[in-house]
Every structure is written in structure tokens, then in C-alpha cells.
Amino acid sequence: MKKSKRNKAIKSNKIKRPIEKKSSNSLYFIALAISIFGFLLYSNTLTHGYVLDDFSQIKENFVTKQGFDGIATQWTTHARYGYRPGPGELYRPVPMSMFSIEWELDPDTPELSHIINVLLYALTGGILFLTLARMMRKYNLIFPLLATLFFMAHPVHVEVVANIKSRDEIVMFLMCILTLNFIWRYIEKENIKWIIGAVFTYIIALFSKENSITFIAIFPLCIYFFTDKKIKNIILTSLPFLLCAIVFILIRSNVIGAFGNPGNISVLDNFLAGATNEGTQLASVFLLLGKYLWTLLFPHPLCSDFGYNQIPLTNLGDWRTLLSLLAWVAMGMFALMKLRSKNLWSFIILFFLINFSISSNIIIMIGTSFGDRLLYSASPAFAMALAYLLMKIFKEKIKDNQPFSFSYIFNNKALWGTTIVILFLYSAKTFTRNYDWESSFTLYEKDIEVSPNSAKLNFHYGLELVKNGNDAATPKEKKSWYDKAKFHFTKATEILPAYHDAYGQLGLAYYRDKNFPKALEHYNLALKYRPNFALVHSNMGTLYSEMGDNAKAKEMYETAVQENPRMVDALRNLGAINGQMGNFTEAIKWFSQALQYAPNDPLINRYLGSAYRDAGQVDKGRPYLEKAERLGN
Hints:
Blueprint: H1 3-11, H2 21-41, H3 54-59, H4 71-74, H5 93-105, H6 110-135, H7 142-153, H8 158-162, H9 167-189, H10 192-206, H11 215-226, H12 231-256, H13 278-297, H14 319-337, H15 344-356, H16 379-393, H17 406-409, H18 413-436, H19 440-450, H20 455-471, H21 475-495, H22 500-512, H23 516-529, H24 534-546, H25 550-563, H26 568-580, H27 584-597, H28 602-614, H29 618-631
């Protein structure tokens, strides 16, 4: 466009002026302050350990632990491929590649990953503010400022920032907001480089987490509400991102399968899978949707698991379901009614509904029934709603063309006094909740008080109690921890009688007590509900070995390896039992296979070296024995 024509277009408001340079410097200063605020909020997570899915995606994922060598595999397999064999529904190669890089740079160091999570979250705050300020330049700057502050401080984000695994959420949303920022720069300057940049960042978002797909609708929604562009131009501007999404879907389908309901959803992960009819399922969905709204309004208490059977299935006669249904339908109808007039409330509601749509369990049943992390990318809508509401209450103009100045921004004492109170309460809850996420034990110990009837939470708390027992110094302390663990495993089976994992752990508990008949009884109960249970077969092998039945022990270990060819414990035990029986060639075979998945395990290296030595191949065994010595065993 020629200069004269461009100036004419600016005067006629067809093209809006970008933010003035003087104001821009001040905006960057505010963005930096917001980022520092976000970093300080989560500074007490920097020394935390691994929690929840951090184990399946990082610490116990053999692909991640390959470092740089594992990155190619991360792009051609599902996210938990290195943790367990079989199909998977999560394709998130960008964060998985980041975990591989971090493991290569500093192996088994969760602190590094926590620092990166907090830094990325802090950066998200700054970018979000700059994007909203640019996109809503007709609006009072107080609006995007308040919205961003409320977003950053809201306690519902603790699960995302404090859990390393949720890097997928952070990177996805950060890249989507950057994409929106670049789209706006293109609208302002009409330079194709900004569309290229936007396509690049959106591709990163897509390969970080699947729900970035919703931004295909968010981008044109924003352009429609905050520019005067015609529908045709909005579609043309949005088209490259639709093409990106199609390419992603094709690649994802080729790697792990098409989008749709994940197969074999357990009621432990999503209690909606236990619904016997559509009415019960729909009623229970809206019960959960009401809980999501309440969590945004009043984020206390927070919990990592409200699964089966803490929130039982319900029916359409439940007043909570009806109230939730009324709220969601009312929001949707209002948003559609006000869409044509470009009402700000309509934008806020549609941003929330579109962004949360995939996680709602309405379109498809996802692999979880409830999780604070699922609100992350939709929660800016709540932050905007809260900011708008406060500005209305305290009579602050929502649209204001006043020149930028800090004195003007902070002039409304009542507004900012209320804001400070809310931010203080949010921040206090966020900071204290962070401590719960220090480790799996601290998290489950706290959350079991909030969700005592969750079978899954009882089971995982039991596992942490067992670990404490293993580390205890005296037999009395060990027994105390083990007995407490046994109580929670038993409670898990009482809540869900078909809980095979809990039966397996009860079998192990009775094995520790040397009560072999009770151990076998519970192992067989576990196999009743899950016949191909590699861990139980491996543990039964250990039990038979201790009973002196090496043939039966070998059979159990072989079964475990057939069920899970990557199970290190079963491979090691199969090698050991063959070594005890004098089958050194077989022992070498199984130890070597175990070493593929745990190359730095000192015990396996020592066993393999010893097997070569006992087989008369001393030279072949020496390097493994020396490596075991270096590794501390």
C-alpha cells in the first residue's frame, strides 16, 4: 500500500495505528513487572521434585532418558511410549523433546525443569498483557492489566506450573498468545513476516498439546471483535492456521491414530466411563462443569484428584446439575445474542466456551473427569470477566482514549484497593498450595484430606507410604509405614472392588509380612481383574523364588516379560533366576535386554558382568563390573 493511501486508511479507521513508541516502552515495563510477579509467585517450587505424571514422562521414561538420542523417537511415538508399551492418545513431541534435552544437559534434575516451567509461565504473563493491550487498544489499559494480573495470580494454575509434565499446557498457551500477537502485528503493518512468524508459533503450539486446535476459532473471534475487518478478510487471515491444524491432524493420525474417544478409559481416570446411560453421563458432565465454574470463583480447596468415587455419578434431577446446566446455557445464549453487536461480555464468554470445549467431556470423553490444569488456557476469560465486573462496579470507563500515564492508570483508589485484596488472597493461596506439590508424598498427604473417597488417590498415597517404609531406619518404623499403606490399599479396593493395582500392592504387602498364602490370594485377585498384569506376575516370581520353587518363579518372570518386554525388574529377575539355575547364556541374554532400558543401573551391570564371568567370558564381563563399581555398586 502506498504511503498516501495508507495515511488515508488510517484516518478513516480502516487500519488502526499501532501502539505509539513512547507508550510501548511503558507497556514493556509493565509486562516485565508482571513477569517478575509471576516468577515470584512460583519461586517456592524451584527446588521441588518429580510429581504425578512427571514419572511416566520423564524420570521413568526410557526414551526421555536417552537425551538427545531420544528426540527422534519422541516425534514418532505417543508421549508415554517410553514408560509403557501399547497404544497411547497423547501426541506432544515439543514438550517431550524439551524433557529429553533437559535430561541430556542435567540428568535426573527436576530443579532445572521446574525453573524452566516458572520462567515460561512468567514470560506468558508478560506476553499476554502485551497482546491484550495491542488487541484491545480502543479499551482502557486498566482492563488488560487487571485481567493479566488476575490470570497470573489465580491458584487454579498451580497444577500447571508446579507439575513439570504440564509444560505442554504452558508452551501451548504461550505459543497461541504469541500467534495472536503476531496476527495483530500483521493487521497493523500488513507485513507478511508476521504471518510467517504466527504460523511458526502456532505449529509449536499444535505439537505441544492437542487442545491448541480450539484457537482456530479463537483467532477469527478476536479479529471479529476488535477490528473492523469484513468476514471475508477474517477468513483469509485465519486460513493459514486452519491449514496448520489440518497438517498436524494428519501427522498425529499417522503416528498414534485419529482424534476421537480414547479407547479403554478407566473409571479411575474418568468416572464418567462408568455411566450406564446417556442421561446419567450428561447429568454428571454438567455436575463437573458446575464444579469448574465454582473452582474459578472460589479456588478452595484444591485437589489433584476428584476421581472415582469422590464425586459419584448423578442424574438430571440433581439441583447442582440443573443449576450448572442453567448457567452454561445462559452464558451460551447471551454470548450468541450479543455476538453481532460485539459486546465485550459476548467475547469473554465465547473465548471461555470455545477454549474449554475439548476438555468439557461433552464433545468427546477425555482421559480425565476433572483437573485444574484443564482450565488453564480458558481461564483468561474468567480473569477478563472479573476485571470487567470490577471496572463496572467502580465506574471505571471500559473504553478510554486517554494518553498513557501511570498516574491515570492508578487513579481509581477503590478499584485498585479491591484488586490488591483479591490479588493478595489469590497469591497467598497459590504460594501455600505450591508447597503441597513438593513431592508426590506431600501432595497425596494433603489431598487425601480433601478427597478421601478417591480410590486412585488412596492407592497412590499408599505407594508413597510404602516408599517411606522402604527408607525407614528401624523395623518398627517400617512396619508403621507399611501398615498405613495397607490401610489405604484396602480402602481403594473397598471403593472400587475391581481395583487390580491395589490388589497387587496388597499382595506385595503380605509378602513383606511373610504371609505367602495371603500374598498369593491378593495377587490372584489382581489377575482376576487384569489377567495380563506384568508387575504382579513378576512379583509372584519373586515370591515363588523365595519359597524355593525356581521353576515356577522362572515361569512367572517369563510371563511378565511376554506381557511387558520393557519391564526392567522382570528382565533382571529372569536373568537372575537363570543364573541361579546355571543357565548363564540365558542370564546374559536377559540382563543385556534389561540394560537397554536401564543402561546406568549398577545392579544390572554387576549381574551381567558376573554372568559373563561365570560363563567363562571374563574379558566380556569386566567392563560391566567396572561400570557397576563406578556407579556405586
